[in-house]
Amino acid sequence: MISELLHNGGLRKIQAETDQEAVGFYRKAGFVITSLGEKYPGVERFSCFFESTPLV
C-alpha cells in the first residue's frame, strides 16, 4: 500500500505516528523512525518518515 501511494498516488513524502507495536512495520518499509518520547503516561510514541527520491 505504501509503495502504491508513492508510485501511483503522486506522493513523495509520508509521515505517520505509531506505537511500539507497529514501529517495526514502518522500519522494514524504509521509514526513518524517531522517538517522540512518552506522549501519554507509559506509552512511547514514534514519528515515522519516508521520502522517496524523484524519478528522473
What's this entry about, in short?
This protein is α+β, with helices and mostly antiparallel strands. The chain has helices spanning 2-8, 23-28; strands spanning 13-19, 32-40, 43-51. It has a 3-stranded antiparallel beta sheet.
Please state how the strands of the largest beta sheet are arranged side by side. 1-3-2
- What would you call the shape? elongated
- Uncertain stretches of 5 or more adjacent residues: none
H/E element string?
HEHEE
Q: What structural category characterises the helix and strand content?
A: alpha+beta
Number of domains: 1
Q: Which range best describes the helical content: under 10%, 10-25%, 25-40%, 40-55%, 55-70% or over 70%?
A: 10-25%
Head-to-tail CA distance between termini: 23 Å
Strand percentage lies at 35-45%
For the sheet with most strands, the description reads: 3 strands, antiparallel
pLDDT average, as an integer? Answer: 87
Number of strands: 3
Number of helices: 2
**From the alpha-carbon coordinates, what is the Rg to the nearest angstrom?**
13 Å
